[in-house]
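Archive entry. Fields below.
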Amino acid sequence: MTETPRKDLPGRLLRLLSLLQSRREWSGAELAERLGVTDRTLRRDVSRLRALDYPVEGVTGTAGGYRLVSGRNLPPLLLDDDEAIAVALGLVTAADGSVAGIEDSSARALAKLEQVLPARLRPRLAALSDAAVAVRHGDVPRVAPDVLAVIAACRRDRRLLSFDYRNRADEAGARRVEPHHLVTLRGRWYLIAWDTGRADWRTFRADRIEHPTPAHARFEPRELPVPDPAAYLTRVLAGASYRYTARMTVRLPAGAVRAGLFAAIRGEIEDRGAEGCAIRLSADSAHLVVQYIAAIAALGAAFTLDAPPEISDRVRELGRRLTRPPTSFS
Amino acid sequence: MTETPRKDLPGRLLRLLSLLQSRREWSGAELAERLGVTDRTLRRDVSRLRALDYPVEGVTGTAGGYRLVSGRNLPPLLLDDDEAIAVALGLVTAADGSVAGIEDSSARALAKLEQVLPARLRPRLAALSDAAVAVRHGDVPRVAPDVLAVIAACRRDRRLLSFDYRNRADEAGARRVEPHHLVTLRGRWYLIAWDTGRADWRTFRADRIEHPTPAHARFEPRELPVPDPAAYLTRVLAGASYRYTARMTVRLPAGAVRAGLFAAIRGEIEDRGAEGCAIRLSADSAHLVVQYIAAIAALGAAFTLDAPPEISDRVRELGRRLTRPPTSFS
DNA sequence: TCCCTTCCGGACAGGATGTGTCCGGAAGTC
DNA sequence: GACTTCCGGACACATCCTGTCCGGAAGGGA
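PREDICTED_STRUCTURE:
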């Protein structure tokens, strides 16, 4: 009697899943009987489901049994209209290429979430996810999703975080920081953290972080100088001092300068009332600073420039070339 | 080399179902690669699913592939690690201010979604959604979520769509279109549609669309000249002719120009081999075109310019001002 | 407190069955 | 007609699934 006619395991697991969904609570013996297997095999099947992350709860004792705890029969994911739209738009825009290889994951997540949505919302989500597409940033370096996940986990656990960082000069170095926030801006992810080595706040580009590893030591969260991490990041990026720095004053209100330029510049623009505004520009490459200056000057307003010779020489040189370009008028 | 390390079959079948659900059509090779098995095993898996009554359709030939025809009675599929990360990042970045008032909705959706996750992933999602923040685009106009939803619904139902549109010159007009795709690019949403009035393809900024209303009439979807809507949009935006247009040739490879500029310009950059590259610039404001030219010239390479007098006069004027700026050296 | 019921999981033996590597065939597209 | 795709048979091999033991832990009722 030691026949062990092997039944179809995958199908049985699916049947078990559907049984667990269909009723609140089952005893092991019942399930085993329905599936036509021994109780021992049933227990094995249950642990298989658990290994696949299905939350099957077992209660011992005389009133015991199995139940699927967060299946979908209790809460069928009660999103309202706006929330469903947010999910669809969020998962579509997440596939914009800023995080490496996330496109497939978000497509799969969208399809799965659609399943657990109340029937009324399902078509809306489907329509949006069919219709909407994100243009992938071609130029921004991608972040590995794991890097972001590790950083976030570290922050939650208040654990110090070690990683290798390639700075702007492409020099690698080991860092040890207290992660504070992850901020995304125009397709890039930044980590705002307290650098224990420098004893100061630093921002790191997430795509330049390698081998992030949680340390054992813990830390007590500090307060950022500016409470809002997003505001802090924009201020830091604007105010950062790079290799070359220049100052301009322009006879235009600060708002007009911001609105008139074809893209945001790396720099602080400060309103000075009737005089116009003062601008501080900084970049690692002299070419970039000159680009900023040229673009601002192209707005047409009167300006003054205060810059080191490497910059101002290039600006004058650029001026000469623009004055007499090999032009053919059309 | 006849190692046959046996993988986890039930889990693989669930993954296969989730893949089939997430995309319209898959080739056998793709699926096999994702699942980490040979094509033969994939075929076996497909027939296993078919034996379990899942309607997997196979199409032979060079345009062939597998598809799940009507996935209704699917088992409850759980999100895996990458999908949970995608959800968190997607909903965080959705709050970047491009869609009006979506911040609260995505936060609430995130909180509710956490409930249906496998317990193992719940902390990860919570950690990421706590840690991550999006900088809100201050400058881009916001779209009302309803506008996007109505457009998507229209597209799904193949209904004509009427709306009022304010064009670049701020002139309002009624349009009647066949919606084809919604594309997001750097915080803006665009509608690609066939304009029945103009009898041609048009792209519309979603934030300038008002009173979108589905018409009663239906339409048969057309094929976009470029199959990929995202590629089509970037091409249209780059190639669009605005009020002022200028042409430059620069003695630099196209890639060097793109990488050297501090931001993407509105224009087509075409590689010309040894000569460098040809650039076509276009904008509604002469100031903008001059900005582009100045920024490109600031790269330092030799260039020629071909532009209407309004532009070239301004360029020379800019050149003069840059040559003798009221500079004080530091 | 004891007893009973339930879930839990280790050990073991034997064989069914999932796997990769072959292969030829049919269907559809260029 | 050449090519690409899906389809499925045959085979060898080892993996792993199965039923049958078994002892243990947890909970409820007398």
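CURATOR_NOTE: The first helix of chain B runs from residue 9 to 22.
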